[in-house]
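thread: overnight batch results

M.L. [08:02]
morning all. the overnight job finished for the chain we discussed friday. pasting input first so we're all looking at the same thing
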Amino acid sequence: MHSLPHDHTGARIKRLRLERHLTQRALADLSQVPYGTLTKVEQGVTAASPYVIGSVARALRVEVATVTGQPYAAELRADELDVLIRPIREALDLYDLGSDPLLSPRPHQLIADDSEALLTAVRAGEIKKAATVVPGLVEEATTAAHAAPSRERWLLLASLYRTSYDVASKLGYPDLATIALARMDWAAQCGSDAIVGGTVRYMRALTYLRSGDYRTGQRLIDLGLRTLEQAAAGRERSVVTGQLHLGAAVMAGRSKASARAEDHLVEAERIAAETGEAVSVHWLAFGPTNAAVHRVSVYAELDEYGVAAETGARVRIPAGWPASRRSHHHAEMARAQLWTGQLEESFRSLLAARKAAPQQARYHQTVRETYSALEAARRQLPDSFLSYGSWLSA
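M.L. [08:03]
and the structure it wrote out:
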């Protein structure tokens, strides 16, 4: 008996393929996914990697969320998160309406302190807390910015739009995440801040990375780097520049351009050596540790899973590193270990991902895909394996 629904990603790919009257061979040719990989994914024997999902979605001309089954509605209802999405959507729609005459915003610093607390909550994996509070803060900051426009107020609003993006993307609402980024870009332009503008381009690039449009993603990375050239030199600009190179490295890895990926990694590592750990600079968690875990991700994207697993085992996460990033790294390790046949190690990495950031892991696509593939070999795994699946789908 399966602990997760039978309607896994592979089953959805098969259903979408048959709806379009395509054979497995035809879809493999259209998506450039190896035929053997596609058949195993459809059978649920092999985990659907982000590359496979993005490539199949583009070939079938559907959204990635259609393939993955996101958002995970039943789990969102169980966690009482579904009711928090509409208020965020409504708050984002107020951006051009000016000041609300019924609102009296608090002093700027109080709103800023609450905004910073939300950024901290997201990095700690406390998604529900952020989703609950951010709509009201967006409304308050929107009125404050229109009532007394200033650079500080516009950038505070941009920060809250960024938190809205974080919540939407982590819970599987790509359409809402795209709207939040558009609002963040608008607020950054109102505040005339090139650093925030470069950060927006980085986040937009990630949306194209997830959808499998690597060419557009790379163009956004290039635009972000050009935008940052308008900012004053310093640690802040270096951190965002380095993060753009890390994003470009994963983009190149997923498009199987190993030489370009290595160039971006080397440049990011050079910058990280200069900046040191810069976890709280625009909350990008940039630094030597982030460069190291991105190298693991790039190896996995290049299908060098053995190298990824070996490299990841040598990474040492410092105390205080954001729980959300730690959880994501453990999920990446689980995927690499699965592909190299290290089933027990893979499950331990899934457990570590859950321990680091439970709310994030529950809605993490890689966690779910890896668990689904491990399920076929669960006889070799401990009894706690099934309880993990029950937690994912409760």
